Amino acid sequence: MAAWREGEIGKRPVRIANCSGYCGDPAVEMYKQATLGDVDFITGDYLAEVNIAKNAEAFAAGQHPGYEPSAWEGLEMTIDVINEKRIKVALNGGALNPKGLAEKVAALVRQKGLSLTVAHISGDDLLPAVGRAMPTTRAAALPHLDASNPAVAPLPSAFAFLPDDGDADPSSPPQPARIVSANAYLGARGIAAAFRHGADIVVAGRVSDASPVVAAAWYWWGWAEEEYDALAGALVAGHLIECSAVRVSGIKGLPPPPTTKLAIFYKGGYEVQLLFNTAGYGWKEKCDLFEKQVRHFMGEEALRKLDFIEFQRIGVPAENPWDQNSSTMYIRIFAQSKDEDALLEISRTVGRISLKHFHGFHSSLDMRTATPRPYIAFYPATLPQSALTETAHLLDPATGATASSHPAGHPPRFEPLGPRDTYDTAAPAPPFAGPTRRVRLGDVALARSGDKGGNLNVGVFVREPRQWDWLRGFLSRERIFLKKFLGVGSL
Fold first, then answer.
1. 47, 126, 386, 452: most buried by Cβ count inside 10 Å?
2. At what angle do helices 69-85 and 98-112 cross, to 10 degrees?
3. Can you name the residues that pair with 383 across neighbouring β-strands?
4. Is 434 exposed, middle or buried (0-12, 13-18, 19+ CB in 10 A)?
């Protein structure tokens, strides 16, 4: 059999098609990518922060396969085309069980008599090493993702797993929170190693979103490990293939940092949300009164049993409402506690003040979300990359057993991340001197936001240079983060 893409690999641009941005994307997208164009690789990202944790207990109990079903369904319906067109595939839909998904795909390949080699990646699941118990002291905790960034202070809730010193009882030591999953973020090394050793389909667990694309490009071009600009370009391409369509140039790469992210999920306790409505005049005062009533009638002792309670105001009634709907907004009580009964006290309190409420108070009779339910909490930690044992395992096409294993190794060198720059525009454009009118910011600018590890990033951009001159003077850090838009307390 001729070598894969003989005469083409490394000589023309590589064609990589993404089929998934998260587990809810339809499985048929893989089939469409394979059939509607000529591609060399198909990649798929199936994991958000919480996928693995959400299914961890069910997988351990034998009630979930551990991998993302849509990844299997896509491969099942596309496998014949993958074989016919010799498309290579890399995806992280293996989630908790990349070996299980790889073995299932290999069995399908054998059943159909196809000529495909399947591999899986191990090394991201660090639960055996981390253990099942969250630490009970700050000193014993792994470094927080933001520990090295002096510009970011983690919220107190980031360490909610620590016992409350005020409730310490020497005769009854606190029970540590139970960890349900601990997965390190691997990169492209294992997938690239699998391709280099002959794999056609590579199933990974927790690798970072762009890693399948980086691995595909790395294998195609045969880059050296220290060709950082090329690898960085593939990283950016990986994010764009999955999420966007813009032109980016001038990409520069650096050696990787000495640490990687370790996503630890643990049982945080219980949570509730209660939704109520106010209609009519004076909605702000009504919200103030309702919160004051609930806090007063619950009492300080009951409130101290809550880890968190917030009275959120959702929506703003029309300035001159024409009916009840246009004069209505929501009050959302959101609360968390390790004590289930402490949360039930909120509903009991609302019941006790039901004839003391403000005019225009109403709600749905469906109060299911007022019943406490367990929730999974997240601690984003960092881990030395030297502690990883990332390995590519190729399965024997004839038996499905492991035929060979190939350690991915570690980068030849690391470079700590430098301090993040934080500044306002040094020389903002002077204020516009002509006539003005008030419009929504969205009429002038576009914006996107994202979140990683509990942090928010937001980018605001405009279409014309003259708008840019205005924007860079208008959007100071204080204006966008602290006052006008997000209302958060730190940068």
1. 47
2. 40
3. 260
4. exposed
- Segment 134-137 long-range contacts (CB within 8 Å, at least 24 positions apart): 134/161, 134/176, 134/177, 134/178, 134/179, 134/264, 134/266, 134/379, 135/161, 135/162, 135/176, 136/162, 136/163, 136/173, 136/174, 136/176, 137/162
pLDDT digits (tens, 9 = 90+) for 60-77: 999 999 999 999 999 999
pLDDT at 474: 81
| Cβ pair 252, 362 in contact under 8 A | no
DSSP 480: I
Q: How far is CA 368 from CA 272, 274, 365, in A?
A: 9, 9, 9
Question: Which own/partner pairs from 456-465 qualify as long-range (CB within 8 Å, at least 24 positions apart)?
Answer: 456/486, 456/488, 458/486
Task: Map residue 199 onto helix, strand or coil.
Answer: coil
Q: Quick one: 211 exposed, middle or buried, by C-beta within 10 A (0-12, 13-18, 19+)?
A: buried
Q: Under DSSP, is residue 368 helix (H, G, I), strand (E, B) or coil?
A: helix
Q: Contact at 8 Å (CB) between 40 and 124?
A: no
Q: pLDDT tens digits for 381-418?
A: 999 999 999 999 999 999 999 999 999 999 999 999 88
Give the residues across from 333 on adjacent strands. 274, 311
Among residues 470, 380, 387, which one has the least CA distance to residue 433?
470
Q: Are 42 and 242 in contact (CB under 8 A)?
A: no
Task: Tell me the CA distances in angstroms from 117 to 1, 111, 413, 450, 489, one per residue in order.
Answer: 14, 13, 32, 36, 52
Pairing of strands 328-337, 179-184: unpaired
Q: What is the pTM of this model?
A: 0.91
